[in-house]
Structure prediction request, 351 residues.
Amino acid sequence: MGSGNLRAEIQRIKELDNRNRLNEEAIKQIIVVPILRALGWDTLNFDEVNPEYPMNGDRVDYALLVKGNPKVLIEVKSPKLGSIDVSEEQLLKYAFKVGSSLAVLTDGFVWKIYLPVVEESWRNRVVCTFNMTIDNLDTIVSNLKDFIERKAVIDGRAVQKARDEFEKKRKEREAKEVIPRAFLELVNSDEIISDLLQDYIKNNYSIDLDLRTISEHLRQLIREVDTIGTRIDDDEILSLHSTTSRTYKKIKAFAFKGKKYEVKTWKELLVLLSKILYNEDQAKFLALTKSIRGTKRLYFSNSEVDLRSPEKIAPRLYVETHFSAIMIENICRRMIEQFGYKKRDLVIYTD
Prediction:
């Protein structure tokens, strides 16, 4: 049968109005068997679709066979039982023992596809989950054809798709575990990064957080990953970003108040703009040196020994230049803002 029949079956299932009365046997006959038939399986051929497949004194609801080998095991549960997850461990143990490439757990509406043979927790062996009621028709068709269609199972595309999805999800889990931990280490070990983060939060969110508070928040994220092992919401993860994303771009020049200046480095931008503003209004510039500073370190000082990489901008006045491109642009824009200029008055040219 073609995808047209599959779409029709899925639409029929979506429109079922008596689903709350369906027991396990009804789910098999009204939902699972028609879906398998639409995916190309001969449900009347015992050597292809084997119901009540024997497993060491127990049985699995269906085994999809290829040349006598169980390639896919399917366990069906009644939606009246609530979550189907309680049955996943038993199903995956069976699948692992017989060398089944894929396993499917469903109550007819929620479908979970597993890769049984990988060494992971039962939960992490899920490669695809979809819901006949909630998900759109195209998504459901694609998932069923990718993992359970007879042709895809026979030629190996189904298990390869499962392996690809497993690897993708594994990398996502690792990233969510590693990124908060690595970021915490960076914040606590690199003064420039900690200052940049604190200043960014203060300037963009008007919240003055100390390093201890930031570190504790990151530790909490790490504990959630370690103890729960579930997804952390993206908006909970602190991130550094720039609206212009200039971190890896080479600067060529900048224009201030319509006049263009050639520079070769971001350091030159900071030094030259500081000199321009100082010469324009010394008193105003000296005032901004008191307000534009990091939580722990000075950005301007009368003594070069206070700075890591000082550059002289006026008699007995130095600017720190050991910053990233993003930090330098941030400082420059804060300086012109305190002088009463608009953002558009400073234009930066990069490659």
The radius of gyration is 31 Å. The chain has three domains: 3-155, 167-236, 251-350.
